Amino acid sequence: MAGRRGVGDGAMADPLPRLYERGAARFVEYRVPAVERDLGRVWRLYRVARHAVDRVLPALSIVYIRYFVKEPPIWVENRRRQLEEKREVRAPLIKIFQRGMLGNTLLACWWMASNFILYYSIWALFCDAFCRRI
Which residue has better confidence, 36 or 56? Predict the structure, then answer.
């Protein structure tokens, strides 16, 4: 018995059952009732609606805010004063890499990189490893 190995053993334990399940699903696909076959159309409609809600509506809300929401009068007054007195705050991209700001720039880059790695390890890698074990 020690020399016999089956489909459920070793590195091929996961892919082989999945392959056979896919084959069975393809075989049964043509025999499902017409109602269940139409669910593909409903799913496509759901994806289009989801796209509209997730991407198009936020973009339109930004356009609305940009053109129809006015700044408070005190901000307009402060902006006018800064322009008259020529003390407007400007921060071009080159400034963040000069001597006084380089530490803050590198720290911000470090934070963003660590947050990216943390996010990816929790939501992508952990989920993938968890789903493979199920």
Answer: 56
Whether residue 65 is predicted with pLDDT greater than 90 in this model: the reply is: yes
Assigned token pair, 29: 């696909």
- Residue 86 to residue 24: CA distance in whole angstroms: 74
CA distance 117 to 101: 25
* Threshold 0.90, pTM exceeds: no
Half-sphere exposure of 109 (CA within 13 A, CB side): 8
9 DSSP assignment: S
Query: Looking at residue 1, what is its pLDDT?
Result: 46
**What pLDDT is attached to residue 23?**
52
Quote the CA–CA distance of 121 and 127 in Å, as a whole number. Answer: 9
What distances in angstroms separate CA 94 from CA 20, 98, 101, 106, one per listed residue? 58, 7, 10, 14
DSSP state at residue 71: P
Q: In 3-state terms, what secondary structure has residue 45?
A: helix
